[in-house]
Amino acid sequence: MNRRVLQCGVAFLIVLVIAGAVIAQRGRRGRGGYRYGELDAAGNLLLPADRAGVEDWDIDPKFLTDTFTFVRVRYTSRYWGYGGGWATDWPDSDLNFSFRLQQLTSLKVNPDPINLELTDPRLFDYPFLYLVEPGRLEFSDEEVAALRRYLLNGGFLMVDDFWGEEEWYNFASEMRRVFPDRVPREVPLDHAIFHCVYDIKEKHQIPSIGHALAGYTSERWDAETAHYKALYDDDGRMMAFICHNTDLGDGWEREGENEWYFREYSEKRAYPLGINIVIYAMTH
Fold first, then answer.
1. Residue 69's domain is classified under what CATH number?
2. In what order do the strands lie in the sheet with 71-73?
3. Bond before 91 cis per omega within 30 degrees
4. Looking at the domain assignment, is residue 40 inside a domain?
5. Of 57, 183, 185, 270, most Cβ neighbours within 10 A?
6. DSSP structural state of residue 190
7. Among the residues of 105-154, which ranges form H helices?
8. pLDDT of 202-231, one tens digit each?
9. pLDDT in tens, 71-84
10. How many domains does the chain have?
């Protein structure tokens, strides 16, 4: 499998991006109609029956296999310490972000995001993965091998929502198991990923809604500056985009809960950067 195989049927659908479109806020969403932890027949954690209030849309039956599906990594390790695990901000963030991709771009998007383990053979059907809260995870040997194969064969990984030096050290150590000879490098602000759709002029730090309403942009004392780093293959292709000391997922998840947070963080920062990351991953 190569990069062309991974993104076939997806990249050609990106005809234009409505970069100037206004993100309209919707009301606060509720949850219900599902039991957390229940899996469907395919092994995906079930979405709530009411989609957490996020509207649904139809996929053209002629392009069922040619739509972009947001895939969250379901890692198997038990996280240590405080904080969340792989399902942090799920399902609202995944549903909301899929909706905004469908609304604001011409990318054809699956309304139903999924979650997969790294060892699932279906992983190679999807060119984009989202990994959250990696500051405490421990990959199994099987997950290490699967992630290495996925990324070297054209896949793209977005990493989000981990804070401070201790969590960075843990994540970096686990990624050294995946790529012993590759070190994440800070992505300069003039890189195309910050400008391919929305023109992002600074490396924003996006806090959780609780920290933001309390007047903080950082969630840790040792995480004052947001870092955006990347791993590259031998040809210079970006394989992973790593969002450290920031939390795009909360900007997606909590968009309907507070008008100020929505305007300041969801609309201005979390969605524009998230959309840029996906479009860059699908076109480079």
1. 3.40.50.12140
2. 114-116, 71-73, 128-132, 156-160, 238-244, 227-232, 185-186
3. yes
4. no
5. 270
6. T
7. 141-152
8. 999 999 999 999 999 999 999 999 999 999
9. 999 987 655 444 45
10. 1
